[in-house]
Amino acid sequence: AARWKRRAQPPQRAARRHRASARLAAAIGPFSIETARGVVEARLSRCDSNTLWVVREGASGAYEAGLPLKEVIRVVVPMPRAFVFAEQANTPDALRTAHEALDRLIGSLRPFRMVPGIPYYEALLQKARVYERQGEWRDSLRLYEEMLKQPGDASWKQAARWQAGIVYELIGEHQRAADMLEGIALPEDEDLLSSVLFSRGLARAALNRHREALMDFLYLVVFHPFVQNNELRGLDAVTMCYVELKDWESLLKTIQWLQKEYPGTPEARRAQELYADYRAEMAEAAQFIGGEVPVTPDPKPAAGSEQRGGTGGPEGATIEDIEVD
User: Fold this and answer.
1) What DSSP designation does 150 have?
2) In the structure, what pLDDT confidence band is assigned to residue 251 with cuts at 50, 70 and 90?
3) DSSP label at residue 49
4) Contact indicator for 257, 317 with CB cutoff of 8 Å
5) DSSP characters over 94-124
6) Predicted confidence (pLDDT) per residue in 168-225, tens digit
């Protein structure tokens, strides 16, 4: 038995050396690793519950060393090229390639996902957004929900909640959308803010919470009218809220504004149909705020009114233009 063990030792040592060499070759990086003791330049090899194992270069070559995980402040990772490609992908082939690049990146980062600074969940966020552009709503929601289950309050987690709320509203799950988008910090980016508030407004309106929906739509109309065509789509959305609230004066003023500033648009035509449906209810309101709605047989669309981000008029609507009280 002793002779057998002595004979087995050399192959065992060779296997250990082979595994160590494989870990050195598979390490990712190099990165700057900020620790409580200073900055370390190294590649990442593996990670366990207490230690981040890194590969460093010494006089005799590469070697593996362990950093106490509790001392790691963050790993500084440059913007991955896969992120840039994913953000720019806009064709079916490019989107498929983006998925492949993100899958490789996600696989390489997964062992280090709990290390501060590792953009593992940011990569999941990018992949979910690619799914959105493909119309694969359930796949995107699966990733957003996975991110939302993680502890902490990282920026990527808030971004996942915004996007999940938008997608839930797109697929008609209004209660889930409202749950995601209420009681949260709002994004600073105007485009994303517009998507969040408009989606929340649609969800609230679908849940018969029309006064709250009005606040979302009118905020965009008044403060961000030139982003995502907010004035036109916002005024179109508030008309049905006014109908449900029986606010005939505000409805009439909104219809008048749409007819004046956006003639010939689908929104103006819908407004005219509402006027025909509720003309009797608005008759008294018309006595106080300017009479009936002017209608032309086939008005020419206002310049820029059907372009994304345009308003169709030299000045945006104000609360006084479209709401009575």
Assistant:
1) S
2) very high
3) S
4) yes
5) HHHHHHHHHHHHHHHHGGGTTSTT--HHHHH
6) 999 999 999 999 999 999 999 999 999 999 999 999 999 999 999 999 999 999 999 9
Q: Is the dihedral of CA 169, 189, 232, 277 positive or negative?
A: positive
Which one, of 188, 189, 186, lies nearest residue 200 by Cα?
186
User: CA nearest 27: which of 50, 72, 57, 49?
Assistant: 57
Q: Residue 8 pLDDT more than 60?
A: no
What pLDDT does residue 60 have? Answer: 82
Task: Give the Cα separation of 291 and 210 in Å (integer).
Answer: 26
Q: Each residue of 131-159: b (16+ CB within 10 Å) or e?
A: bbebeeeebbbebbeebeeeeeeeebbbb
Amino acid residing at 291: G
Q: Tell me how far CA of residue 140 lies from CA of 86, 132, 253, 266, in angstroms.
A: 14, 6, 40, 31
Q: Would the pLDDT of 157 be above 70?
A: yes
Question: To the nearest whole percent, how much of the chain has pLDDT over 90?
Answer: 75
pTM, to two decimals: 0.82
53 forms bridges with which residues in the sheet?
A: 46, 66
Cα–Cα distances in angstroms (integers) from residue 145 to residues 69, 79, 266, in the given order: 27, 24, 36
